[in-house]
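Follow-up to my post from last week.
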Amino acid sequence: MARQEKKKDVVIVGLGWTGSIAGIELAQEGLDIVALERGHDQNTVPNFEYPQQIDELKYGVRLKMMQKPSQQTVTVRRNGGETALPYRQLGSFLPGNGVGGAGTHWNGLNWRPQEVELRLRSYVEETFGADIIPEGMNLGDYPVSYDELEPFFTQFEKVAGISGYAGNLNGEIREGGNPFEGWRSEDFPMPPMPTTYDSSKFRDAAAAMGYHPFPASAGIASTSYVNPYGMQMGPCNFCGFCERFGCYQYSKSSPQTTILGALKRYPNFEYRTQSEVLRVELAEDGQTATGVTYWDEAAQEEVFQPADIVILSSYQLNNVHLMLLSGLGEVYDPLTGEGTLGKNYAYQMNGGISMFFKDEEFNPFVGHGANGICIDDFSISQNDFGAEGFIGGSYWRSGTFNGQPIRNMPLPAGTPAWGAGWKQAIGETYGHAMSIGSHGSHMAYANNHLDLDPTYTDRHGRPLMRMTFNWQDNDLRMNQFMKSKMEPLAASMNPDSMRAGFKGPGAEYDVRPYQTTHNTGGHIMSENAREGAVNRYCQSWKAHNVFAMGAGNFVQNTQYNPTGLVGGLAYHTVNAIRTQYLSNPRPLV
Amino acid sequence: MTDLPGYPSRRNFLKASAAGVALSGLAAQAKAQETTPPVPLEDYDRAYLNADEWAFVMAATARLIPSEGDGPGAIETRVPVFIDLQLAGDYGSADDWYMEGPHVPDAEPARGWQTPLNPAEIYRKAIPVFNAWCEQTHGAAFAELEAETQDAALTALQDGDVALDPEIRDFFSILLANTKEGYFADPQYGGNHEMQSWVYIGFPGARAAYRAWPERHNEKYPLGPVSISGERA
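User reply:
Got it. Predicted complex:
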């Protein structure tokens, strides 16, 4: 029989970005809060200290900051006819582990979606007609608009400490910013980061072709900064160890650098690590949750934690898994379209070109995860879907992010993989290459979804979650369009040679190479309980005292890195809890 | 500033960096600070590999990253030591991975790691099979062959021309990945001896402080590498 803990007002499942946001905002209301974190505790000191953190093998290759598949993983199949097999060794995506979650090891690329991305179905129907929407694509509108979310994007950016330059300030388009971004009520909290050599070459080439280059929006401090919670950040030194690493010098936006220190000072907040939530417990009538049951690793026993409000803020995959295991909705059936849990799992469609310049020096180790100059000239709001034959878009970026040689060794086409030819090539090429990346949207489809696996179980005996996912023609066509536009731009820079990597027609999902940790959907937001798992406040349609944070809410994925939208939605949700729910707990829609 | 026992101090790093600036023009100083010479590879006390496996790993890595030409090879950088230590550790035993059955080792490669074997077991099972193939095809175990024949044998292994059971079919790609890891990883893991690979390609290792550098365009960074333990080269 499970041990029972003292009842709390709020239990938070997972202490990453959104769990930290919920914790501090609800702690300000005086609520009694506990956060349960599956992983270990970690902080800048001592966990990310120099020089131990500057270790490509340990963190970059052996992935010691990430979720261990031995503890939690999924199974994967490309279509309903295949038998799903476990994702045994991390590859394609890297969920985080421990306090701070993925917010600790991300690159710091912080974007807002474009206005049309949040009402994409309506935009497509109005502009191009519903008949261009391919069979099987679950194209949808978000149940919240850009204008409604704008104050919360701004709030998150102030907390996270984002560097950049507004291209659209209250509707005024400003030279040097992104003219295609959604309006901003204020400029960025910090000015943009300095521009490295590769970025400057890309900027000049893009401008010469009539495009609109602008500095990337970076969760990396360009100056010293104090955020609204009183947390301090110091300017980045371009150490080049962002993605897969904790920041050793308080420069990268993370829960540790921007929230947790302030949150831990609230006496009404506590957190327990090594505490893996196994399920949400529902009341007998199924209309509310009574709390959560978790595994206490130290005590080696199950514990029931009663609470009035349950905030699900674990990683997207784990949030969906918990909801499936807890009966927080009906499981989505791709054949009938009925059910909501697991629906609209989506990902990201990326490509890029490496360019080689034997006589130029790029110092690829001088960089940061959100470095670079971008263009949005081929973004969702700019593409003619009717003429091009796809729905979607991408942003492009060029900027050194790390020069770590085990993983970052682009070599010209035709270079042998080993032997004397390989060794000669690395000596000649390292430091003399740059790249441009295309980071593209991924639509939602009936055939890409999540449910429970019939065969494989975790260490607690729970079924693993099963991912059914493959690349779809629409997104592959978008990617090939980007290739056709990027190659002339790259060629205009006159490299000695170049090498493109874009998935094309017929490409199948391969779980081995790292692609991106932008897994989205599965507990999507919706206007009504038939279409999705949560409402516009990310409140469960099934149990009104359960709120689900994170990218699982995405109706389909945007063309950008998800954190900015995740942060904006989190502040939108906690604002609704504070202003509408606490005084009168009920379904808010 | 307090120096913690067992940890290289930030102060020593700053001193090392300053020394690097002052001496960067002097070739005589571009050598790692070595107090005791390492155990010769032939006398190395192996943690996981047996004698035959060690002979194979020595010979194979010596062809994957050969000593001839510019830059160090796998032998000078002590890549075999790295591989032995990795296989003896939690990587070799796949401690972090989901290894529960049922296993489908003949699933197509895009489905990821599906063999029931961990990396250490794959080396143990695959090396005798490949050596037997070398004996049958070329008349001797891999380590005994001429360099040119070794290259041909490795190419056959890479191209799937050596019959391997599905459980061990990915041996070549694992061996090649581990070899490059050992070549480029921090020296604390046993390879990249004296940071020779970093010196060769121009990677500054654990310096990780380039505040003055983003806007120095098309100008080669002048300082040699430092390691996590405070070596410099």
